Amino acid sequence: MNVVGYVRVSTQDQARSGLGLEAQRAAITAWAASRGLEVTLYEDAGITGTSMEKRPALEQAMCAAKKDAVLVAYSLSRFARSTRDMLIIAERLKKQGADLVSLTESIDTTTATGRLVFTLLSALSQFERDLTSDRTKAALAALKARGVKLGPKRPNPTAGNEANRLKWAKIRANLAPS
């Protein structure tokens, strides 16, 4: 059996620290080693899981997961954040004759029960993402209702002008004849 591992962290800070990636790599490697198998790892560092399109290593891992292979990740959330994307991944692997394993959720699609649990947890993952989005929208609406201005802070042009005025006043004072 060919084992293809996929690791991902969402932010550049997580990617720079390497801790999340290292923990995922270690778990996948240990899983494969416990079965006497070697693993080929693919990594997307600092890339969000909200879309499959912008993750080149996921595509490479999917291509590498051919007949009798298994695509392994630390958690379903490493593959996708939406039920639709997760089911697309599962269907593509099925067509290629490969299976999927998620270590955290103990999902193994080589069994009927594993496939059922996989589908249910994919739906729960989507639900969690939707709840987070709803809470964020409600919080932003509450801030806006209180008059808080949202968005990036604009530089204060008055402060900049005052700083320039003082700088030029100092230059003029140094240039003035004594």
By DSSP, the count of extended strands is 5
Low-confidence stretches: none
What does the radius of gyration come to?
Answer: 25 Å
What can be said about the biggest beta sheet? 5 strands, mixed
Task: Estimate the global geometry from the Cα principal axes.
Answer: elongated
Secondary-structure element pattern, one letter each: EHHEHEHHEEHH
**Proportion of residues in extended strands:** 5-15%
Order of strands, main sheet, comes to 2-1-3-4-5
Query: How many helical elements?
Result: 7
Q: What structural class do the secondary elements suggest?
A: alpha/beta
| Average pLDDT level | 87
Report the end-to-end length measured between terminal Cα atoms: 87 Å
Summarize the structure.
The protein has 178 residues and is an alpha/beta fold.
Can you walk through the features of this model?
This protein has helices at 12-17, 19-34, 56-64, 76-79, 83-96, 112-145, 157-175, and strands at 2-9, 39-45, 69-73, 99-102, 107-108. The longest helix is centred in the last third of the chain and has 34 residues, at 112-145. 57% of the residues lie in helices and 15% in strands. It is built from seven helices and five strands, in the order E-H-H-E-H-E-H-H-E-E-H-H. With 178 residues, it is α/β, with parallel strands linked by helices.
